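Posting for a labmate who doesn't have an account.
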Amino acid sequence: MSNSHDSKAITLKRLRSISYLLDNAIPIPGTNYRVGIDPILGLIPGGGDTISAFLSAYIVLESAQLGVPREALLRMVYNILLDTMLGSVPVLGDLFDASWKANVKNISLLESHLASPIPSKKVDRVFIILLLVGLILFVMAITFLSVLVFRFLLSLFTGN
């Protein structure tokens, strides 16, 4: 039992670190507010939000392996989808990324599950695969649309 508890603690610590890096690692001088690399990555057209979404998906995968129930996993994916979709809007999306903090929300969902004395039914592998494949396909579609919009805007400004 202790080994399982130690393993969960190590995984939770790793996931908290990823969440912190993505959502809170950088203090804004003169304020108590922090941002992570998520909104900074979002400045990379077509790729930054994708990188962030894949790192966020890792948190969901690990949460599923820790026994987070289906409803909480769906909420986690919703947080990532909203972050990716709205985060892909130039400039305004980066401001949204800096305030939404999907990964902090997802870690909170994970911690709530781990603190609950009521055991939940383990989610089946097929559900996890379908959930993550759906997330990846959605992120790829958003990335593709972002690249198309970026190219369109670039052609307007360059005349090509």
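Reply:
Got it, the structure tokens are right above this. The first helix runs from residue 2 to 23.
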